[in-house]
Amino acid sequence: MQLSNPKINLSLIASLAIVSSNALYAENYVAIEYLQYDENDNRVSVSTPTLSASYDIGTDYTIKGDIVLDAVSGATPTWQPDTTSGASQRNNTGDYEYKNQTFDEQRTAASLMLTTRFDNRDELNTGIDISRESDYYGNTVSVEYLHYTDDSHNQSVNIGASYSFNEILSYDYDTASGASSRETSNSINIQAGLSQILSDSSVIKAEAFAIKDDGYLTNPHALVVKNYNTANQILTNENRPEERLAYGATLKYISLVKDDLSYKANYRFYTDDWGINAHTLDNDVYYELNKQITLGAGLRYYVQSEADFYNASKDYFTNQAFASSDERLSDFDAFTYRTSIDFKQNEKLSYNLGAQFYTQSTGLDATMFTTGIKYRY
């Protein structure tokens, strides 16, 4: 994409993750960022340092990489035996309560992306992502082609696909043995979009996507109660369908309202054959206080319907083929409030601070703080 008007603040637009070409603001850099995420009620806590780098090989190639180290601890709410009632086995005559199941985990992830630019300045992006945990291995390959429809580079179309293969360690909670096994799942994601420069200060992009998931899609740590208060009551693994087809669309808009003020909006619609329909609306404003300091503020609203096989009650499930009490599949809405500050010390060195507060209608609240440093060379 080319922006011909010299009054446009390229660095500010690029900082908004503009919706089209990576060539808009290519740069060589090394960056370090630290993220701290904490949920209420002593639930999940995540500490994440990230190292990322980008390097231009001539004018036709850019290679980008990231390394992430997560330290995750806390507890996930699910049905468990109520030991105060005398229940000590998973299959018992005692009672059950919805309480936190503690865990402690570390994750290592890495990604690599190569951008290739052709004579007509079309771009091919190829990437690989790897993630490793004690009970989860994830591997993803992706490819995307971006084509400019005219010499002015004011309009482009893109089409891309990714394939993920995952290995999940599952535990059998139907018996007291807690036997484990390795399960697999895979996912194919296809998307296509159109980007258009509307004026010398605004850009819009529309994109459609489809996702096909197959294999073990169950949460291995989530449990449900079946046949409660009968002679056959049991605490057992949740069970989700082994296939899911999802599709949706996104619409993104970025505008340089004034030389020092930018606005970014993003709407996403998602639906799948599990019965979940979701809407996401993002709004962000960035204000360039001076040549060194940029302030940001944002609001995100998310709402979804519940999956067909979800129920939070312990006395609901009997002989259903699919069952889940995982609140992430429930009917809920959520708000995320964001603020940030970026400080540019000079042309090479910059710093950032960010904070987010998340509140969900299920009672889940979370905070996230980020800080980082970026060196351009």
UniProtKB/TrEMBL annotation:
Keywords: Signal
Pfam family, one: DUF3570
Stretch forming the signal peptide: 1-25
Tree of life domain: Bacteria
Protein name stated in the entry: DUF3570 domain-containing protein
Source organism of the structure: uncultured Sulfurovum sp
